[in-house]
Amino acid sequence: MKEYKMRRGETLEERVPDMESYVEETFGPITETMDYKGSDLYVVGEPANPVFERVVAGAVKYSGKKDKLAVEFKERDPTELSPDELEAAGEAVDAKNTFLLEATGRDAKSRRESLKRQVEDDAPDY
């Protein structure tokens, strides 16, 4: 599960007031919810795009801190996909990037840089 921060000065609630509808609109009908760090995340067990096997997304609430977006994309093995399903791969990448951009206000480049900084900050000092 990956967690994403919002752009400075913004909250997830402001960007995506109805997370359930946003997840359904982007990936397909929600089949269940799951608990993650005390928050309920939405699970799409049969996503509309055949490249995805399962999508989990939702807000993780932290006391005294801004909420973060938690997301897990489980994708099918490309060797198991038919040629028609493989064509949906580009749409799957677009769906992921658009979902994350709309929810966090950060594009792929700034999300990568933020994750890099987080890894550097978490590295042990020897």
TrEMBL record:
Domain DUF5611: 1-117
Stated name of the protein: DUF5611 domain-containing protein
Record field: compositional bias (Basic and acidic residues): 107-120
One Pfam family, short name: DUF5611
Record region (Disordered): 107-126
Listed Gene3D superfamilies: 3.30.310.190
